[in-house]
């Protein structure tokens, strides 16, 4: 049908190589189904002489990325270098040269999204980044297109495969964090430096991207407070199981519109949480991810699939490349709406049910004293579970929804009580 | 930005009314986010004088549907009459007049899809029907666009809310089918005539639509063999629970490519099945739906949400209307690929693990006799559970995957054995 659409690739690491292989493998099938003839025309890498996958022709490689982003014979640029520098500069150059760009670079999009969207719009071309959100899971396109007429009120879910793999094994096999992390690293499920995953930073980047598009407001990764999974204790997994929960690392974004209908505030947070065992998120195991999108009219939607991995990411990138090629041939593009920066609601003002593990000295009236403190701070107790005998007991409280501010007030006062030996882990409960 | 895009509606039943209200409610927000000014211009109904929702202006109503599908002042037609006649004729007229059409009519699309796709292509306009698949759940757009470069191998899931509601309650509360159906009808979760739902016909229509788009082959509703949930017995729910399963009505489509890479065969089926309790489909409760899409590169994806209901359907229709309006303004449209009719693999050749409930006369050697029969037909037994004492026992067999043909051969021979009193329910096990 149309002219051949020539794809230039920046970077050929594990994801880049998987994409190049998938593209070559699917050229005929894509043309067959969509009528669009694609070609893989050039690949810029640091070392063009390095041996590469047999499926990719050696003459495609170049050492100069500007041979891709400024080249006359490249129609679409796929950026898979990762990181902010030099990816940002290269993408801006391509967009300014009127070339659509597809990227999987969540760090960059979460840090500099609005700048890139504006450059794409100036260039009159597409800037697509489905793989930067939840890798293989189509979620940005449904949010931007299928739900374009919707009022999205919440985006929440499991968006990091490494931590979900670790938590699934800690939960299922009663193992400690360090043991599972070491095993995950050996199997390639966790990076040698797992910091971005286990601290929640990676999830925060993805949440920034998802919430920006869902709420049409601009949320940056730095806006997202995060708690990681590094200091989770085995005892909390046991207690969670006993109460019918599993522990998951969640990324949660809520929109709180102003009473006058204005944009209001956005609550964004990454944290480990208790999730009821029969909640759909509880069955998301291993390296799988799942994101709930709550909307006014459609209600609750969930998107589930592989949130990491070279080939799943490549699948998502190929979908974006086909969409960009289709738009190129029709002389059109889809603008990413750049929302104004969101007003972030302080985490202290966000309300959850809480799980609170404490050690108390057993004595008559202690429980009533402790629950009295909660009550004075407006925190209602839904469940109390006391374990232990003699003089010391572990008491777990589960609260009704309360703000973190109210809870912290109660906990500060509890710490002053002589009968309260220690306040251990506090975890949010996600419903 | 562009000109106002004038929407004409056919039908104002529960879904039509919900759509008209949602559209009017969202006009400003849609223009704000997408730059597209929409208007609700006319609504064709059988009785224009009938009192309607306060949110819809009385002067919009007409008794003549051709006042919509042929009118100069209508840019997009939304068909929500349902059924084949006169919807088919009206849609064809609109498409031939160069008006894009959005519909939620699964019966029509599953019966006459290729004819409508061809008419849309001749008219150079969009024909969208996201709400005809799984109502609120965006799945056709992700399949058609995000997964355009993918090889989809399976589409499977829960696509009927009424039966899932009934099965969830039968499973959870140990109630009989008739009791739950009556309650569901009272609550409006089941139609006064529930035939299309409980026989699996509705699910078969949706599976025809999903598999046609996923496999790029044409599957009609009549191609889909279906078993309903009418004759499910309480004892099977109890036994399922005992073995760690729940019972769900599933729609399953598999692609079996030919060895030479040709289209090969498609296996399509609707049936009640045992699903392991911690499988993500097991947590899909009440009127929710969920569809797994298995692909070569992305792996396993799942889409979850409300598969029925006026407002969820309206959300999905509005998404399609916005996409069609966007294409109209850009002078483009997206062709539905019309695949050749699929070769349907006979159900006898599809392989599953089976659950088989039998009554046998207890005697030495009976179990070995029965398992011997299974073995001779190539059906391997994974689990045997015998309950009862004295002379008669209920024995449940769980097999390894075997074709229905092999299983039926074994069951036919078992029926001839004197010690086998009866063969009760046989259910597939979905993994």
TrEMBL record, chains A, B:
- Chain's role: Catalyzes the conversion of L-aspartate-beta-semialdehyde (L-Asa) to L-homoserine (L-Hse), the third step in the biosynthesis of threonine and methionine from aspartate.
- Cross-referenced InterPro entries: ACT-like_dom_sf, ACT_dom, Asp/hSer_DH_NAD-bd, HDH, HDH_cat, HDH_CS, NAD(P)-bd_dom_sf
Ranges for the ACT domain? Answer: 355-428
Its keywords, alphabetically, are: Amino-acid biosynthesis, Methionine biosynthesis, NADP, Oxidoreductase, Sodium, Threonine biosynthesis
Protein name per the record: Homoserine dehydrogenase
NCBIfam families according to UniProt? PRK06349.1
* E.C. number: 1.1.1.3
Q: Which organism is it from?
A: Kitasatospora phosalacinea
Q: Which reactions is this enzyme annotated as catalysing? A: L-homoserine + NAD(+) = L-aspartate 4-semialdehyde + NADH + H(+); L-homoserine + NADP(+) = L-aspartate 4-semialdehyde + NADPH + H(+)
Select a single GO molecular function from the record's annotations and give it: homoserine dehydrogenase activity
Pathway involvement? Amino-acid biosynthesis; L-threonine biosynthesis; L-threonine from L-aspartate: step 3/5; Amino-acid biosynthesis; L-methionine biosynthesis via de novo pathway; L-homoserine from L-aspartate: step 3/3
Q: Which domain of life is it from?
A: Bacteria
Q: Please give the SUPFAM superfamilies that the UniProt record associates with this protein.
A: ACT-like, Glyceraldehyde-3-phosphate dehydrogenase-like, C-terminal domain, NAD(P)-binding Rossmann-fold domains
Instruction: Return the similarity comment.
Output: Belongs to the homoserine dehydrogenase family.
Required cofactor(s):
a metal cation
Record carries keyword NADP = yes
């Amino acid at each position: 049908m149309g002219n051949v659409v020539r794809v230039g690739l920046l970077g050929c690491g594990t994801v880049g190589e998987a994409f190049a292989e998938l593209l070559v493998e699917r050229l005929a099938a894509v043309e067959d189904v969509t009528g669009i003839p694609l070609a893989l025309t050039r690949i810029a890498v640091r070392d063009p002489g390095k041996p590469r996958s047999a499926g990719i022709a050696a003459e495609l490689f170049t050492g100069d990325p500007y041979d891709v982003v400024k080249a006359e014979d490249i129609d679409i640029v796929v950026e898979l270098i990762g990181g902010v520098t030099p990816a940002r500069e290269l993408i801006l150059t391509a967009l300014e040269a009127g070339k659509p760009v597809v990227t999987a670079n969540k760090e960059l999009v979460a840090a500099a999204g609005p700048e890139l969207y504006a450059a794409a719009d100036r260039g009159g071309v597409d800037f697509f980044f489905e793989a930067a959100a939840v890798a293989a899971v189509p979620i940005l396109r449904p949010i931007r297109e299928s739900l374009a007429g919707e009022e999205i009120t919440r985006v929440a879910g499991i968006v990091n495969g490494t931590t979900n793999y670790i938590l699934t094994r800690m939960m299922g096999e009663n193992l400690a964090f360090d043991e599972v992390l070491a095993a995950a690293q050996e199997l390639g499920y966790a990076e040698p430096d797992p910091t971005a995953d286990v601290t929640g930073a990676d999830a925060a980047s993805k949440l920034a991207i998802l919430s920006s598009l869902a709420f049409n407001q601009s949320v940056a990764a730095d806006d997202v407070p995060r708690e990681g999974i590094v200091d989770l204790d085995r005892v909390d997994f046991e207690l969670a199981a006993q109460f019918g929960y599993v522990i998951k690392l969640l990324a949660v974004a809520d929109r709180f519109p102003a009473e006058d209908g204005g944009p209001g505030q956005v609550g964004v947070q990454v944290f480990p949480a208790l999730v009821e065992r029969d909640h759909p998120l509880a069955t998301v195991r291993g390296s799988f991810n799942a994101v709930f999108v709550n909307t006014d009219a459609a209600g609750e939607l969930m998107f589930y699939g592989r949130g990491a991995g070279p080939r799943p990411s490549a699948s998502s990138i190929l979908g974006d490349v086909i969409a960009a090629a289709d738009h190129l041939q029709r002389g059109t593009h889809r603008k990413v709406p750049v929302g104004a920066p969101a007003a972030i609601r302080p985490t202290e003002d966000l309300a959850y049910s809480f799980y609170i593990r404490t050690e108390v000295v057993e004595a008559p009236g202690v429980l009533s004293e402790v629950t009295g403190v909660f009550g004075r701070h407006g925190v209602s107790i839904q469940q109390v579970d006391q374990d232990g005998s003699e003089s010391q007991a572990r008491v777990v409280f589960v609260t009704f929804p309360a703000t973190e501010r109210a809870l912290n007030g109660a906990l500060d006062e509890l710490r002053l009580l002589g009968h309260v030996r220690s306040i251990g882990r506090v975890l949010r409960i996600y419903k």
